[in-house]
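note to self — DONT lose this again. spent like an hour looking for the file last time. sequence + predicted structure for the chain T wanted, 349 res
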Amino acid sequence: MSEGVRSDERGLGDVQAAGILDVASPAWEPVHLPFRPRLRTADEAFAHPFEAAFARLLTAHRVRWSYEPTSFPIRWDDAHRPVAFVTPDFYLPDHRLYVELTTVRQRLVTRKHRKIRLLRDLYPNIKIKILYRRDYQRLILTGEATRTGNDGEPGRLVLDREAIVARLGELALQIARDLGGPGADSPLLLACGPGGRRVLADLTPPLRAAGLVFDTDAIRVRHVEGTGAGPGGVVTIRRGPLHDPAGRRVLIIHGIVSSGLTAAHAVRWLWRQGARDVSTLACLDRRCARLVDVELHYAGFDVPADLLVGYGLDARRTFRDAPFVATFRPFDRPGAELTPELDPSSRPD
């Protein structure tokens, strides 16, 4: 984030009193500098290596971005000239979202918070998200292969099978009401990855019992290495569905949604295939890790930021078939539970 400050500055109250900025007007919109889409970039174009890695992650998930495209005035002098600016690190135009990376020492974070709060007060229609060091690490440490699980064991129980099956039964009734009915064509239920397949297997019986007629299929999202896009390479659909989604209502099913990057990519892919309607179900919703907005029409459980294993989740393959969801406890840290931001094998679901 770039910024500039002079001593003869005026704050939000002074600016509003002088009539410089009418933040109450619903028609008021800030003027953005021209959008600069980037698909590949040299690391030297960024002020910090963390920013370069974050850009590669966005590119890998085919999220359009622009680096520092807009500087927002936040203070003015007595002559109404801007003397202080805030320049967020990234702008994601498809999500209308600014992202500011914060990897500085804790003592400097408070000052940055103050500037971001002032930015939000002055520009209330601007959506901006701060990514802290822990959020950044959770997002970009995604390139290594999924581990077998020999380095740890299940820790604290988060959800047992009875709770999972009961909640999926409730969601099944809601799905049957939304997608069923007289004269309705059969929807396509599409499992995404091993977690989605596990959820679909337990969701199918209550859906059948509710009288919904549907087809099932699966897709697999793959992180392709060696493409020059940085950790994780490029995200692509490794296996498409055998059923053609064109012209159909599609419900895509995930085991877990975290950052929203993979889920958003799957939704965009289905629209490109000609699906008539696309809705999303996640058994586990790690909302605390969300980066981009993705609409979850059906969500099972809110889960914490801990690294989770079991119930089809990919984090540790050894425990994928476990009927429960638990945190992961590494052997080399007795009594501790590994969080996604410390685990280089967690993926930005």
